[in-house]
Amino acid sequence: MTQREFLVINGPNLNLLGTREPGIYGSTTLADIIAGLEARAADASPPARIVAVQSNHEGVLVDAIQEHGRRASVIIINPGALSHYSIALRDALTAVGTPAIEVHISNIHAREEFRHHSVISAIAHGQVVGLGVDGYRLALDYCLSTFE
């Protein structure tokens, strides 16, 4: 049996987690989040592998989805600000056909008006918002129990 692979995509400014607006995003770093996901995935039955990509550049994220997305069982994506306008990310996710779970640390629906709409949510299998960094773990747990 081939090991399951989950692609975890993080968009602009998420590399600053831990220091960026801790009142909204907390003090956990992106490296801590990814390490926790990797450990949880490795301990799963059957185990899974995490492929993590973060970039502040939309095209790099599109390339990562195209490169890794088809072989992934699922894509967990926090597009950051790209959620609200990146048709390119949406099209890449649609093109690879892999189920995607959209994650946001803050509740985008309770923030500024321009953050309320996500162009990704309509094509996502599901969305986890406003549960802090635990949203990543919850998304992964769902994926481990749902996707081969």
* The CATH class: Alpha Beta
C-alpha end-to-end distance: 10 Å
- Show unreliable segments: none
Give me the CATH superfamily: Dehydroquinase, class II
Number of helical segments? 5
Spatial order of the strands forming the largest sheet: 2-1-3-4-5
The CATH architecture assignment turns out to be: 3-Layer(aba) Sandwich
Q: So what's the oligomer here? A: single chain
Arithmetic mean pLDDT: 93
Whole-number tally of structural domains: 1
Helix/sheet category: alpha/beta
H and E string = EHHEHEHEEH
- CATH fold annotation: Rossmann fold
Shape: globular
Rg from Cα:
14 Å
Structure, described:
The protein has 148 residues and is α/β, with parallel strands linked by helices. It has a single domain (4-146), classed as Rossmann fold. The protein is 35% helix and 19% strand. It contains 5 helices and 5 strands. A 5-stranded parallel beta sheet has the order 2-1-3-4-5, sandwiched between helices. Helix 4 (87-96) links the parallel strand 3 (74-78) and strand 4. Helix 2 (30-43) runs parallel beside helix 5 and helix 3 packs parallel to helix 4. The longest helix has 14 residues, at 30-43. The radius of gyration is 14 Å and the shape is globular. The protein starts with a strand and ends with a helix. The mean pLDDT is 93.
Structure in a nutshell:
With 148 residues, this protein is an alpha/beta fold. The chain has 5 helices and 5 strands; from the N terminus they run βααβαβαββα.
